[in-house]
Design brief:
six-stranded mixed sheet; binds inosinic acid
């Protein structure tokens, strides 16, 4: 599939197990409360749809569209909001759900954007975190897996729009 040479890095069953744990953590935190679960498009849609179904509480779904990578493997350094939320988050519990935190730019931008709207609480969840790539500080409450500073694809993550439908996370072997 596609032009890249890939090796499986995080398997379907490891992802499934970790998402159950993350869902249980969120269910405990928000027991009996309503939360607005915000998906950061495009990359998070696969993780998001599995995570919200692992959350045993009232969930309202909403979406941020964001782009910073264009077609390359390096962040452009500029975050662009392509779709805004349709719900009002003031006085609501918001859970921001991201696929991967790399430089931290996207997350720090989105957190600022949400905080000025005065939510009751803001919880940030990411499936993957590359601590060695961090350039900008952002608060992260729940991390699925910490990974090395290497490009990964699959399970929603793309390279040039491809590989999002891989059911596992793979590392790219032939990257220069
Ligand atoms: P950040 O703003 O640098 O933290 O990057 C966040 C966004 O970059 C994520 O939402 C992803 O869409 C994309 N991204 C970062 N690292 C990777 C990767 O290894 N593979 C695919 N996309 C990535």
């Amino acid at each position: 599939m596609g032009p890249l040479k890939l090796s499986k890095f995080i398997s379907e069953s490891e992802i499934e197990k970790r998402i159950k744990e993350m869902g249980a953590q969120l269910s405990d935190r928000f027991k009996g409360k309503e939360v607005i679960a915000v998906c950061v498009l495009n990359g998070s849609f696969v993780f998001y749809s599995d995570l919200i179904r692992a959350m045993d509480t009232d969930v309202v779904c909403d979406f941020f569209g964001c782009s910073s990578y264009g077609n390359s493997m390096k962040s452009s350094g500029q975050v662009k909001l392509t779709t805004d939320l349709t719900t009002h988050v003031e006085d609501k519990h918001v859970v921001l759900i991201e696929d991967i935190i790399d430089t931290g730019l996207t997350m720090s931008y989105l957190q600022k954007m949400l905080k000025i709207r005065n939510p009751k609480s803001l919880t940030t969840v990411t499936l993957l975190h590359k601590p060695d790539a961090k350039k900008v500080d952002c608060e992260i409450d729940i991390v699925g897996f910490e990974i090395p500073n290497e490009f990964v694809v699959g399970y929603g993550l793309d390279y040039q729009g491809m590989y999002r439908n891989l059911p596992y996370i793979a590392q790219v072997q032939n990257m220069n």
